[in-house]
Specification:
about 290 residues, nine-stranded mixed beta sheet, 13 strands, Class I SAM-dependent methyltransferase, SAM-dependent_MTases_sf
Length: about 290
Amino acid sequence: MIWWKMAVQSPRGDLSYCRRFHQTYIGSHEPRHLREDFCGTALLAATWCRGGVFRSAVGLDLDRPTLDWGARHNGEMLGGSAQHQLALLEGNVLDPADSALLVPFPEAGPEASASQSSASDETHLLRYLRHVAAALDQARGGIFVADLLGGPAAERDLTLPRHNSTTGLGYTWVQSGFDPVTRRMTGTIRLREMDGREARRYNFHYDWRMWTVPDVRELLRQAGFSTTYDASAGDGGRTSDTSGSQEASGSDSEESEGEADFQPHEDLDPEARQRLQRGWSAYIVAVLAPQPG
C-alpha cells in the first residue's frame, strides 16, 4: 500500500517514484492500493487507477465541491466500470472515524499517500502520522510518501511565471509572508488565460508550516514507522519544475515521464549538495516493514 500527498502534482513522475520506493523498501510484489489524503481533485489517485484494473485508490478531503469537480473531471477519465476503482470521500484526516473510511478495499496491497502542509503544528502532525501508521497493512507492510520543500528559495518573497507544456496553460506562483519564527509561509497560484491574462477568479491560496527533514523523520519514528528515507533535488526541485502531465496510462515507460532529478541524499555529488544551499525539494519515504509470519 502507498500513502501519498503532494502539494504540486506531476502524476507520472510521482507514481513512478512511489512504485520504485515500494519495490526497494517493501518487496517485489506489485502495489495495488493507494490512499491520497488532502486529495483535492484526486488527480494522483485517478491516474494511479488508470494504470490497471487491479489498482484501487481512495482519497479524503474536507472540501466537497473540490471532490465533486475531481470526480467529474479526473474520475471520468477512468471510464465506465473502471470508476469503481476510485472512491472520493469527504472527511478530516485527523478524525479517527473519517480516517478509517479510507480503507474500503481490504484485499488491496499496502500503498498510501499524504501531505504534511496542512498539519499546522507538531501535535496535529504526530496525531495524523499515527493514524497513517495504524491504517497501513501490518502484515504486508506499506510506505508513506510525502514531499517537502525548503531552503532560502522557499523562505523569501518571489514571483515565478510557469507554463504547463502538456495543457498549454500558464500560471504564476507568488510566494510571500514567510515568518522565520513560526516557519509559516503563504503562497498563491494565479492561473492565466490562453492569451496570457491572469484569471484571478481561479486563484489558489496556501498557508503552510515549513517542516524540516529531521523534524518529520523524528515524528515518523514516534508514530511507529520502522525506517525513513529521503530523496532530494536541488534548487527547489519540484517547485521549479511543475510542468507534469495531467494524464498517464500507468505503464513503466510513461509513468517515468515527468520525474525530477531526485536522488538519495547520501548519493548527491558536491555540486548537487551546493545547489541544496539555495533551495531543495525532497520526498520523505516512511516504511512500515512487513511483519514475519
